[in-house]
Task: structure prediction
Amino acid sequence: MSAWLHDLYDLQKKLNDRIVARHGLEGEDLLEKHTLAFMVELGELANETRCFKFWSVKPPSEQAVILEEYVDGLHFILSLGLDLGYPTPDKPDVSVQKQSAERLTDSFLDVYGACGRFRDQPSEERFRELFIAFWRLGAELGFDEEAIRKAYFKKNAVNHERQDQNY
Result:
């Protein structure tokens, strides 16, 4: 287990607990809402990469924007594991294929497929499959552990600020 990934899991739990308490959601099952939120964030990420937009010549967004969207998805995928009481996932060892629009499109569809299978059968094995597919997507987008870690910490702080400001 990566120590920093465990730290992210702990930070996500603190944020989730804060949101649950603030909005009076104690005892409510948030798995379906977290699943949909993850899928929406994944769509926003795909939109920023523009990998599927064969009809457009507009380039993808800046890497910083894409990384922030990736980390938004990471917040929700960690929440899925927390919802079901799973331990911190291990950092997957993934091989990365050459990045291309076609490969990224396939990777996004792989994550969506894994998310659908997880929703149909929410098990620790399905969660690991989803996490691996999402991690592989991040690697194919060019993000290393350090970039993901830093971006997660930054966005987690923003999410706490948003709670302070009645977001």
In short: The chain has a mean pLDDT of 92.
